[in-house]
């Protein structure tokens, strides 16, 4: 496991600046520490010499002033390091989160569809929060170790070469302990990161399906499930803490024994007169300081492993050269076929699912066409719509109507079969904006037979609305976008599954008006009224085969 991932420095300018700043404050701290050792040695020597001669040391006050200034300088440098670490940690987390979100947007929804949304959110949220310990403790100590260790060894060698040799011979024991402990903790830390992702996934799934669970009386069972995952994570956390404490003890023991060897050597040579008191005091003060950075960096490294694992996951995402997995299949800027911008063209469209292959589909639907994708639940209707949106890899060609060179996602309006409403007003949910066009919102709501006030508050998940109202708000959202952006392709996934016959007829009429206004409307549904109103019906049977039936020919 690398002490410092070079990708972090390459991808984060703040991290690069912080490492340099931490090295600078480390140099100041090392200088102050050397000054403290010299001040203590000089003060003790002056006092001893004065006692022996029966005089008062004349330079004692100046020595104490230098000693006090050195202590103050080290305290200021330590404060500056902590302040820089706090600021850098916050900025680097912000930079990494923004970079990952930009990369996810660049790669498209197809790339996101292949990842766990709960695990992804957990990594970007509490996972990256663990970088506080990484930047607040480990990186400053690593920079201090890189600067302080060689400088202090040189200072000790100038005071007493024998003690420097003893320290150099004993110092490798600490890195050996660090490597052995690191090998032992690596698997444990990764297991802990996986446990956090499972915990986040379990909680997210329970919240998303809470309404369904309550309907079937299964909500209470999720308490036990989340409790088990939480307990697993708690036990893992305690295990990591135990190992961190043990590693700290092992490093402390190794450093203490090494300092003891130096102290014994100095004591023997003081007795036989081969080493002066000043040099002995100087080396005795600096010897623990020479071991302290290396010892502390090992302890902090293990304590900051949660952040190391989270940053590794994020850096793997940012450093992965893979492009958008849907680029080869998304309906955007496909080819010269875009010149025929007046039709939805499917050539050999085939979607591979784990349980069945849906397709192939060959279809040309000019603008003004309503296409119904029919079939039983689970046959693959939503998968075909996902392929048209470009979020599901597929074989074959998809050409979306619209201006040549315009991305397919900008030419498409999509209404999911789940409303996915957020906390806010009805207008904000329809427009997906904090500043909606209220009149256009009223028009969209009226088109689906909803007399709700645009300013009516809505809770997360559509709390405060019935199931049918929430579904019609979602359809109104699609009508709003289609009208605002004049998208030539409108995809509706089961838009009437929770509606009565009267409301369903309004939605069908709205879909027809969209087609008459110059769009291709594709509706996935198993409702007879929707299928009967379509110009083209693509029926998907349970085996995945698709049959095209033309009910009414639409002129291009």
Explain how this protein is built:
- With 556 residues, the protein is α/β, with parallel strands linked by helices.
- The protein has 18 helices and 11 strands.
- It has helices at 6-11, 13-53, 60-107, 109-113, 117-129, 131-159, 161-170, 173-208, 210-215, 219-272, 277-303, 305-319, 381-389, 426-431, 438-447, 467-485, 501-516, 528-532, and strands at 343-352, 357-366, 370-374, 395-399, 412-415, 424-425, 457-458, 489-493, 520-524, 536-540, 546-550.
- The strands form 3 sheets. It has a 6-stranded mixed sheet with strand order 5-8-9-3-10-11, with helices on both faces.
- A hairpin with a 5-residue loop joins β10 and β11 (546-550).
- α6 (131-159) packs antiparallel against α7, α6 (131-159) packs across α12 (305-319) and α15 (438-447) packs across α16 (467-485).
- The longest helix is centred in the middle third of the chain and has 54 residues, at 219-272.
- The model is unreliable at 323-340 (pLDDT under 50).
Task: Provide the descriptors you would attach to this structure in a database record.
556 residues, alpha/beta, 10% strand
Helix content: 55-70%
Mean pLDDT: 80
User: How would you sum up the global shape?
Assistant: elongated
Low-pLDDT residue intervals, each spanning 5 or more residues: 323-340
Helix tally equals 18
In what range is the share of β-strand residues?
Answer: 5-15%
Structure class: alpha/beta
- Please give the radius of gyration in angstroms: 34 Å
Largest sheet: 6 strands, mixed
SSE series: HHHHHHHHHHHHEEEHEEEHHEHEHEHEE
Record field, number of beta strands: 11
Strand order of the largest sheet: 5-8-9-3-10-11
Q: Give the termini distance in whole angstroms.
A: 62 Å
């Amino acid at each position: 496991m690398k002490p410092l991932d070079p990708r972090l420095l390459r991808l984060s300018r703040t991290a690069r600046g912080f490492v340099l700043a931490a090295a600078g404050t480390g140099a100041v701290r090392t200088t102050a520490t050397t000054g403290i050792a010299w001040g203590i040695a000089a003060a003790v020597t002056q006092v001893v010499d004065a006692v022996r001669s029966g005089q008062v040391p004349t330079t004692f006050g100046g020595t104490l002033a230098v000693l006090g200034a050195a202590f103050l300088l080290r305290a200021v440098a330590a404060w500056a390091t902590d302040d820089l670490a706090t600021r850098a940690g916050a900025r680097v987390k912000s930079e990494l989160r923004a970079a990952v979100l930009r990369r996810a947007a660049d790669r498209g929804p197809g790339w996101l569809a292949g990842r766990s949304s709960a695990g992804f959110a957990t990594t970007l949220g509490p996972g990256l929060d663990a970088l506080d310990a990484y930047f607040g403790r480990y990186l400053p100590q690593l920079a201090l170790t890189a600067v302080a260790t060689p400088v202090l060894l040189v200072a000790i060698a100038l005071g007493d070469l024998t003690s420097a040799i003893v320290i150099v011979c004993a110092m490798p024991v600490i890195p050996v302990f660090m490597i052995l402990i690191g090998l032992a903790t690596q698997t444990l830390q990764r297991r802990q990161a996986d446990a956090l992702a499972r915990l986040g996934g379990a909680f997210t799934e329970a919240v998303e399906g809470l309404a369904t669970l309550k309907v079937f009386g299964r909500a209470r069972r999720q308490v036990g499930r989340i409790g088990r995952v939480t307990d697993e994570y708690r036990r893992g956390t305690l295990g990591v803490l135990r190992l961190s404490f043990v590693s700290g003890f092992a490093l402390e023991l190794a450093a203490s024994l090494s300092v003891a060897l130096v102290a014994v050597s100095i004591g023997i040579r003081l007795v036989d007169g081969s080493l002066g008191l000043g040099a002995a005091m100087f080396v005795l003060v600096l010897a623990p300081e020479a071991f302290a950075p290396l010892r502390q960096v090992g302890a902090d490294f293990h304590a900051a492993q949660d952040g190391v694992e989270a940053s590794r996951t994020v850096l793997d995402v940012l450093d992965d050269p893979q492009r958008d997995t849907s680029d080869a299949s998304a309906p955007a800027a496909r080819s010269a076929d875009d010149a025929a911008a007046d039709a939805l063209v499917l050539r050999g469209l085939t979607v591979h699912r784990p349980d069945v292959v849906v397709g192939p589909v060959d279809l040309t639907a000019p603008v003004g066409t309503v296409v119904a994708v029919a079939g039983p639940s689970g046959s693959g209707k939503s998968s075909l719509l996902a392929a048209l949106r470009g979020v599901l890899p597929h074989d074959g060609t998809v050409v979306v109507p619209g201006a040549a060179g315009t991305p397919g996602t900008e030419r498409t309006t999509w209404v999911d079969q789940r409303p996915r409403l957020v906390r806010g007003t009805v207008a904000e949910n329809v427009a997906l904006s904090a500043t909606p066009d209220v009149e256009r919102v009223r028009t969209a709501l009226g088109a689906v037979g909803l007399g709700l006030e645009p300013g009516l508050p809505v809770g997360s998940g559509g709390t405060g609305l019935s199931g049918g109202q929430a579904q019609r708000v979602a359809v109104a959202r699609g009508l709003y976008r289609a009208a605002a952006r004049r998208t030539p392709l409108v995809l509706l996934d089961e838009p009437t599954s929770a509606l009565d016959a009267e409301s369903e007829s309004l939605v069908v009429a709205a879909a027809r008006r969209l087609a008459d206004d110059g769009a291709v409307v594709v509706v996935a549904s198993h409702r007879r009224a929707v299928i009967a109103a379509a110009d083209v019906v693509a029926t998907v049977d349970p085996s995945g085969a698709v049959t095209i039936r033309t009910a009414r020919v639409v002129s291009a």
